[in-house]
Predict the structure.
Amino acid sequence: MEETVHPKIIQVEPTNVCNFSCLMCLNTYRKNKPQIFFSDDLFLKLAKENFSLIERLVLYGLGEPLMHRNFIKFLIISRKYLPEESSIFFSTNGSLMDKKKTDYIIENNLADEIAFSCEALDWPDSSSVGHSEQITSVNSNLKYLAEHKRRETLKLGVETVVFESNFRQLPKFVKQVGDLGADYLSISQIYPFNSVFAKQTLYTMITKEALSILKEIGEGGWNLILGYLQERFAEKTQHTYKNMYKFKDNIVEKKRPKADLYYKYFNRAKKENVHLNIPLFMEEKNKLPLLKELEEVFMECINIANDYKLKLKLPEIVPSFKKRECPYISSETTVIRSDGEVVPCFNYLYDHRSFLNQHERYSQAFSYGNIKNASLKDIWNTHSYKKHRAKLKKINEKIPYCGDCALSTNNCFYATEGTSDCWGTEPFCSECPYSLNLTKCLL
Ligand SMILES: C[S@@+](CC[C@H](N)C(=O)[O-])C[C@H]1O[C@@H](n2cnc3c(N)ncnc32)[C@H](O)[C@@H]1O
Ligand code: SF4
Ligand code: SF4
Ligand code: SF4
């Protein structure tokens, strides 16, 4: 397939500043880091040079886009330079979308899709973890937009993050969003940026393909590993001493029942193109009933959403290896940080710690260049960016997968450092919950 010379979607972060401190959000832990606003001149330059070539502009990053004092001006510029059929989308915490701004955006057709982020729409149910600040004004801003938007020209979405302490309230939340008349509700699993939220996740990174085999191994996982290792050790010792052994002619082949069983399971996994992460299964198997309960809650949500004709975008609970795909690659999207750095995805905007597969990872921001010094088109077409995209297009062939690898749970150097993967690819994409449709970043 011919490599595209320009991204189809540009995601621009107007600012990394936020007026909220949602406990699950990375921005909340970055409070002392530089606070940046996208420069007006740079935005105009970007619009003039690139917007005629794109299908969609996404105007948010890590921060609240409406905290930029010129956010509305950015929308006006964008509409002017985008082709007529291209769309403008942004996600907001909604606190600054007052009546005046909403009227102005609607009257001047400055957006095609707006998503409000919230985890609950009323007190006292509202979880203190998600977007719980200024909930009264957010609620009335959302209602105002829902009542005044013209459905055919402006899509309204709600996006929410699900974790252990809020998932049982989801059916009620779906009903509230349906009552509002929103077009869709997008639910994302949580990306755990601290160890507390790591315990609240409602998914496993073991794939469906591997999990069905691991369930058969069940409680016997550690015994299987230990038995296999003991038998392998005994075999090796026998082999080493064979030639020195006085009665070597009397040696008979020993039975290796644990090793045979181990190979039986691993050969089955191989046919499915996956590995078996027994240590992770042993850590997470007690979570499976909770994941089943979430599945049932999702079924209930689907029924409620259908009654309202509300589009429901659900995340995976147990992901499929076969469906693994980078959402930035499939949509040909690039991300521009508020200081002009061009990064491959939301994950690479800022340095952060995360807690997946029972280990901590330190990830550093990763940039291919800055639009202050080079054109976006040139950055998009640099050898390293093109090479990375080519690999991600064939992700299951070219990028290893940590969720099914036993080393991830045992502090694999690559998975904890998060710089390159064990096959040498940089940046590190082999333990990415976006690529499994677990966590979502709306584009
Ligand atoms: C980072 S916010 C930026 C835009 C805006 N401030 C907002 O809240 O919509 C974008 C989305 O990320 C979601 N988000 C925040 N922390 C998350 C996490 N730990 N895991 C998954 N999604 C998260 C938010 O709920 C929001 O819908
Ligand atoms: S989720 Fe959005 S509103 Fe909440 S702290 Fe993060 S950037 Fe701010
Ligand atoms: S990076 Fe480490 S954990 Fe991930 S697949 Fe490679 S060896 Fe396994
Ligand atoms: S970290 Fe995930 S979302 Fe980002 S480029 Fe890699 S696969 Fe795509």
Notes: The pocket of S-adenosylmethionine (ligand 1) is lined by residues 18, 24-25, 60, 62, 64, 91-93, 117, 159, 161, 188, 190-191, 193, 439 (CB under 6 Å).
